[in-house]
Amino acid sequence: MSVRSILLSVAVLIAVSVTGVSAEPKPGDIYAEYVWRGPYYNASTWQRVTDPNAAAAGARQFLPNRRNRITIEDLDRAIVAEFHIEQWGATRARRTQRFA
User: Fold this and answer.
1) Is the separation of the CB atoms in 61 and 41 below 8 Å?
2) Is 24 a residue whose pLDDT tops 80?
3) Which of 23, 24, 84, 93 would you call most buried, defined as having the most Cβ atoms within 10 angstroms of its Cβ?
4) Which long-range contacts (CB under 8 A, 24 or more apart) does 48-57 make?
5) What local confidence, expressed as pLDDT, does residue 52 receive?
6) Are the C-beta atoms of residues 82 and 94 closer than 8 Å to each other?
């Protein structure tokens, strides 16, 4: 890590701690959590995503990757909406993964 990135990280941490930024709902906030529960196309409890350029012989059976659409109908008066995506990278070679 360079000195510049360390200093930038420290500055961000100080700014966050001073302003009291928190991801928690505050008193008076209306909070609703929506959890995607499928449909799962190629596994029973998780979604596999395969690199279209994968060299492994068995990878082609999982292509093309499906798109997951999440529709939430009652956000028409929402002021803020946040989402959390959990990603498992499997190996260190997967450093170029991205969401599209």
Assistant:
1) no
2) no
3) 93
4) none
5) 84
6) no
